[in-house]
Sequence to fold (572 residues):
Amino acid sequence: MKRSETNRIFKNITKTINNNVTTRVLRHRRRKEKPLNQSCLILLVKKRYVDGIHDESLCFCELHGDDIGNDERFKIVRILGLPNGWCDDESSNIKSAQTELLAGSRGMKIDYNSSKLLLTPFFVPKIQIIDTTSQIIITTSQTNNITSDNEEMNTTLKTRVDYDDDDSKNNNLTEKEAAATGNEFSILVLRGNGIDSRMTYAVEELSDSIFGTSGDPINLRSQYSACSYNQVIFKPTTRDGTLNGVYDVTLKRSIIGSWDSDITNAMVNQAERNFGTKLTKFVNYVMICIPPGTRGNWIAYAIQGYWLSVYNDKWCTYPSSQMHELGHNMKLAHSGDGNNPYGDQSGLMGYSYGTDNGPKMCFNGVKTYQLGWFKEYHQDFSSDSGFFIWEGNLMGFVHRDQITKGEKMILRFIDNNSNLHYFVHFNRADSFNTGTKEGRDLVLVASGYNRQGTRYLRSNLLAELSAGQQFMVPRFGGALLRIFVSSINLETNRARVNVNYQNCSDDASYRFRMHSNSLNRRRRKRRRRKRINNPSNLRQNCQWIAQVSRRITTYCSNSKIRESCRSTCQTC
Fold:
């Protein structure tokens, strides 16, 4: 090969390398990253997908001040790199929309290109939790994650745990919202349009499906008003420029292939620029209706305890989806059944349904108790208060006006040993609850694990009881809790329930002699020899029976053993 040709090849290779290096340098320069200068508000999201079972736990942060960026008024960014468990809404000690990530935390930077808050391996969090009830501020700094070992933090968070406190009477909305509007809460619906995708439904159709402005019989407003007996009324904002609560937002950008969080930021910013003020200055809640085409088969999500909910096109018109997401805004978690977090179909914090014509449903006993709509008809029992017996009528939510003195709607049983709460209610399928999908006209038992530091707890459906059936909790405070449904009368709309909580422990001193025919000849001979030195050798106790299930079947048929081994034989 000639020297000139070798030089030419070398120059081309050098030019290519230099071009690649220059491109990488320019890209690095164009990438806008900077540290977090002001504290941001942590927001927890459970994002739902079309399959109805798959969901995703996400952490976002609402930026403030200079961190938002130029020409923007509002920005939430997804947080990446948090320790395990932080974004899990059912196990995290973080309070959504109440916990701030302080600017002094090491190892954080905002990536404006990807709208993410990046955390490096050197991240050392500083967390500020603001308790809106007592206005107490606590700051902690830990290297791994937030644990329950911080005694001072947990003591403060306990003030928000109790179901008996007064904030349930305001339906878990903030004091500012409740004081400003009473039982009416205003909603702004943002209808988005982009250069390559538009909302399927017109402004008038959206308003009708959400507020019933054109006669839609089943919608967000009608169902919340009915289920709460007008204690929660969602009304469309009357702000100038809106039509029956709906405002068109036209974006000069593509929708197809974009992230829904980017579209949400863009829509809120555009609306705030057009209105000249923050949206939360004149409304309580904002519903974002995003045109079809964004990434992923997601359907809807809402931020816990916050003012924002987001819907994928047509899901903005379905009342079950609307009620579900606004329920998250009011700090309601999901209603599950076994391993399925959405499996309880007796209420609307389980599945949502892709129809504009219903179903007519409300919430299960756990969520209704949390909302405090029928507080005067609640009855609480605690394992620490000693043994008790209760018998009375349970009335379904839909027939509140028929209730008489002494009758109840929801029974709550507090197991102070396990911190589990059990809720019992009569799921009457009538009137505004006629579309309930599960446990129709049955007495339902559900549990909720009342964690320290949060009122946001997922419920779990345990039993659907008809007349003559019972549900037992063998280890309720160390004894047996028995819930028995003696009758259900659909004509009077009442279920008769008997509750019995009594000592269910085994008699530790009780011994019994095994039946001789239960021992084979060789064992009888061997034990006969041993009896000379140990006369009680053939005597056994309740614990011995409990070791093998076959023994329970054999020995618990004896009345004396059943009476002495009450826990083992479950004969309380």
Q: What stands out?
A: The CA atoms of residues 123 and 266 lie 29 Å apart. Residues 21-31, 127-180, 531-537 have pLDDT under 50 and may be disordered. Residues 33-160 form one domain. The longest helix spans residues 3-30.
